[in-house]
Every structure is written in structure tokens, then in C-alpha cells.
Amino acid sequence: MPDYHREQDTNALWIKDGLPVSLSVVSFIKRWLFPALTATVIFILIIVLGVSNTKTSNRLSSVEKSVSNFSDVIKSLNTSLQQAQERAKEVERIRFAVENNKDQLNSVSEALKQLSVVDYLSRSVASLKCSLERIVNNGSGIAACCPPHWDQFDYNCYYFSTVSLSWNESRLWCEKKEAHLLILHSDKAWDFVTRHAASRWFWVGLSDWRTGRWEWINRTPYTIEHRRWMPGQPDNWFGHGLGPGGEDCAHMHNDGRLNDQYCSTKMRFVCQKHSTRG
């Protein structure tokens, strides 16, 4: 047989024998590989969707928290707004009250001005009355004149305060009235002041704060008379608890005797000045 025919026969046999192998591979792919790939893809998709859902769920949870926090902020702002509105109403009420008080204060101020005028006129009338009486009586029988609310004794006028001040404040108050804190040199004047003190304590013009020695407010020396002082006084006590220092100012007890006291203590006082002669 010629070589050509042999070669054709050989090729035909190769094709005939090789055909079942190709069909087996295709069948394997269809039966196993394709489903496996499909399952793998589906599994990957499931994982991706699961991860995506997890992220979405976390985001939703974060959004819910943000919304919840935002709601709390809104509630807090609403509460603050209500409080601000209440405060605004309170401010308005206070403003209204201040306006009313302002009107009342203006009325009081006007009344005080009128009282000041009345007081000035009273003093002027008293002075004129004193002068007229002196003229009518040719200067006889009229010893002196004192301002309204001042008590006259001999040639002095005495003012017994109704307010309580420290010793130094009392001194300044008297000086504004062209007077000074009480100075006593005679038993008669001492008895007069004791009777008019009305069982109260009063500052007098006696102290030792300036030099350490007791002296009257006009700086005349004072010699201690123990009969004029409470028992054991003056003692310059430091245990009063009212501040630094001892007791350097004198006041009169309700029985007329003296006691040393802390100068910043508030109490009534007696002012004294010479009477006016017409």
C-alpha cells in the first residue's frame, strides 16, 4: 500500500480514538466545574452582600445614634429656650417694678426736698422767734435759743440722736451740725444728760485712741473719776471679737456712768454746741 494511504488511515484512527476524550472533558466541565464556579461566585456574592449589609447596618446604627443625639440636643435647646423666655418675662417684671419704684423714689425725693425746706424754715422761724422775744423783752429773761429738736441747758444745746453710728461717724455727724460730741465738765450738765438719755447708751466725746491717754474731743485732758465709770472700767478689753485693737472710745450707760467700748460699735450719740443768742 502506498505511504499516502497509510497516512490517511492513521489520521482517521487518531480522530476516531480522540473524540471520546474531548467529550469527557466537556462533560466534566458541565457537570462539576461550572456548578462549582457558580457556587463560588454565589458564595462570594453572599459574602460581599453580607459585608455590605453589615456596613449598612453599622451606618444605620450610627445614623440612629446621631438622630437620637440630635433629638436630645433639640430637647435641650427647647428647655433652654423656655428658661430664656421665663427669664425674659422675669426681667420684664423687674423692669416694670423698677419703673414703679422709680416713680415712688421720685415722689420720696420730692417729699424729702419739701421736708428739708420745712426744716430750714422751722430753724429760721425758731431763730426769728428767739430774736423777737429778746427784742420784746429788751434782752432780759432770754438766755439762749437752740435749733428745733435740740434741748437747751444753760448756754448749751444738746441733741440726743435716734440713729446708731460708730464713734467716728457720730463725730462727723455732729460736726456737720456745727457741733461736737458731748463734753461734760459739771455735775449739773451730767445730771441733765443722764435724765434725758432715756435709759439708752450714747457715745460721748471721750477717747484715748489718739494718744493712749483719755481726752475730750476738743483735746482737753481728762482725769479719770472712778465714780463716773462702771465698776472695773475702763479696762481696754481686747476680747470683744469685733476687730483689731482694744476699747478706745467712751459711751454713757443708761445710769449715766461711763464704759469704754470698741469704737466701731454702732450706738446712739449726743451732740453739743453753744446756744445762739439774739
Describe it for me?
With 278 residues, the chain is α+β, with helices and mostly antiparallel strands. 55% of the residues lie in helices and 12% in strands. It starts with a helix and ends with a strand. It contains three helices and eight strands. Strands 1, 2, 3, 4, 5, 6, 7 and 8 form an eight-stranded mixed β-sheet that branches. Strand 1 and strand 2 form a beta hairpin. It has two domains: 27-114; 144-277, Mannose-Binding Protein A, subunit A (Mannose-Binding Protein A, Chain A), CATH 3.10.100.10. The protein is elongated.
Strand content: 5-15%
SSE string, helix = H, strand = E? HEEHEHEEEEE
Helical fraction: 55-70%
What is the count of distinct domains?
A: 2
Our measurement of the CA-to-CA distance between the termini, rounded to an integer number of angstroms, reads 184 Å
Morphology? elongated
Largest sheet: 8 strands, mixed
The pLDDT mean sits at 80
Q: What is the assigned CATH homologous superfamily of the largest domain?
A: Mannose-Binding Protein A, subunit A
Count of DSSP-assigned helices: 3
Number of strand segments: 8
Q: Within the CATH hierarchy, at the fold level, what is the topology of the largest domain?
A: Mannose-Binding Protein A, Chain A
